[in-house]
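Why should sequence recovery work at all? Because a backbone constrains its sequence more than one might expect. Tight turns favour small or flexible residues, buried strands favour hydrophobic ones, and helices have their own preferences. The token representation captures these environments compactly. In the example below, the structure is given first.
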């Protein structure tokens, strides 16, 4: 209701302004009511200005009113003995341009206001998330002292406590996981441990840490071991001692089977769902005691608490359209953004091209190495492209898509330069030092259409 009243009030102001201008001009030159001889036409100017002020909807009314008024005044002014008809291009040009330019200006104003409002809403949402994180961080600080008491079962120095707390309170998920393994090794005297993350889409566990082990060591360990499977099935910490009797009954060569088993397996949870699996493969015999096992449990609880906050923090620092793991936009975002940019390109002639980055021998790498390679290349592209260019994931795992607002020649030169820079890095897909083959392709000139983004297949190879 308030908006309607405001529209009515603005329209009345506009009407009064037009009436005042027409009246003043009438006293000055009564033979030129439509102000045809004045350039630019005052009625035209008022229509555009008010459209710029009030937006697209208002521009429809004010431009229509202005055009009708202008045409009416022109009808009164014209001598029909000299002019056969006023419905000619000479007389219709001004009212037509008046309507078109007012609508365009109003549309631009409306779009600008809408985008500013969207940006303001996003900022407000982000501020709220940061405020919540701040409150949670304060609550976490209060819990730290209690958690330290549960973890520390022997006399430790203040420095050791500080180091553990600093590492397990990281707000980076990747760093937090590596820090967790490091702290467990130090506090519970563990020699070797692996961490696997559950890929919900594939339904399998993917090795993610530590980064210091070779692919051969990862391949040698069988995640389908009794200890790991029981930990996954029961959702709790399982040790090799628990399954020793079961293996004795099931397997005649139980001693050989036990050699292949990890010492401890512990599922890690995030927000009530399994996030990953922590596996301890080696630790000194004299350190494999209940006291150290309890330390591992408490460190895991601390890690889970910090993990929840780290994930929330990373999600708040990146647009919701982005993939947290790779720090790149999702494929759905690519489709929507590319369609929007294609429409703007067709309407206003803004240059638009799509660059495709293809990893030719990507499938030969392990899941862990695939993730590390893709993360590195995404970061490389983000650092070497303009901020307005969007690096996006593709619906094909071995591809990346980039929306670039530059002309075709510029994009082609940019792709060649990126290929040369990336070639300086020794990116290998296996322990045999086989290099990753990266191809840069760009969409054919003027091939990006708003309604054919999904079907876009016209690419030319640059490198």
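From this structural description, the recovered sequence reads:
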């Amino acid at each position: 209701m308030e908006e309607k009243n405001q529209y009515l009030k603005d329209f009345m102001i506009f009407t009064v302004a037009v009436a005042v201008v027409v009246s003043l001009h009438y006293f000055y030159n009564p033979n030129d009511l439509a102000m045809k001889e004045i350039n630019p036409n005052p009625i035209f100017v008022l229509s555009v200005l008010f459209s710029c002020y009030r937006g697209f909807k208002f521009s429809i009314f004010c431009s229509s009113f202005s055009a009708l008024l202008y045409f009416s005044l022109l009808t009164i002014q014209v001598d029909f003995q000299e002019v056969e008809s006023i419905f000619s291009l000479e007389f219709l040009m001004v009212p037509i341009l008046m309507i078109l330019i007012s609508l365009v200006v109003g549309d631009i104003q409306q779009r600008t206001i809408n985008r500013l409002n969207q940006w303001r809403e996003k900022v407000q949402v982000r501020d709220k998330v940061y405020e919540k994180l701040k409150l949670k961080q304060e609550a976490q600080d209060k819990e730290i002292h209690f958690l330290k008491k549960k973890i520390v079962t022997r006399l430790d120095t203040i420095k050791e406590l500080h180091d553990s707390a600093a590492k397990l309170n990281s707000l980076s998920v990747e760093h937090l996981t590596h820090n967790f393994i490091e702290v467990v090794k130090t506090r519970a005297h563990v020699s070797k441990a692996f961490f696997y993350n559950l890929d919900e889409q594939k339904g399998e566990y993917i090795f993610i840490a530590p980064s210091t082990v070779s692919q051969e060591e990862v391949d040698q360990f069988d995640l389908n071991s009794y200890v790991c499977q029981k930990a996954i099935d029961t959702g709790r910490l399982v040790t090799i001692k628990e399954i020793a009797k079961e293996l004795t009954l099931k397997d005649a060569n139980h001693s050989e089977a036990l050699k292949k088993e990890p010492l401890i397996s512990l599922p890690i949870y995030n927000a009530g769902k399994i996030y990953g699996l922590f596996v301890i493969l080696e630790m000194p015999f004299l350190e494999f005691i209940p006291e150290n096992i309890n330390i591992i449990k408490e460190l895991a609880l601390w890690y889970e608490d910090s993990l929840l906050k780290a994930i929330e923090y990373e999600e708040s620092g990146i647009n919701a359209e982005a993939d947290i793991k790779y720090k790149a936009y999702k494929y759905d975002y690519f489709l929507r953004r590319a369609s929007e940019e294609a429409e703007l390109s067709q309407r206003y002639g803004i240059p638009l091209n799509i660059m495709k980055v293809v990893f030719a021998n990507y499938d030969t790498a392990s899941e862990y190495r695939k993730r590390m390679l893709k993360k590195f290349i995404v970061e490389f592209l983000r650092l070497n492209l303009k901020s307005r260019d969007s690096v996006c994931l593709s619906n094909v795992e071995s591809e990346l898509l980039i929306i670039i607002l530059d002309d075709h020649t510029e994009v082609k030169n940019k792709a060649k330069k990126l290929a040369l820079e990336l070639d300086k890095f020794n990116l290998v897909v296996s322990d045999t030092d086989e290099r990753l083959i990266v191809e840069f392709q760009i969409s054919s000139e003027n091939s990006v259409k708003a309604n054919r983004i999904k079907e876009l297949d016209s690419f030319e190879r640059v490198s």
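A few observations help interpret the result. The chain has a mean pLDDT of 81.
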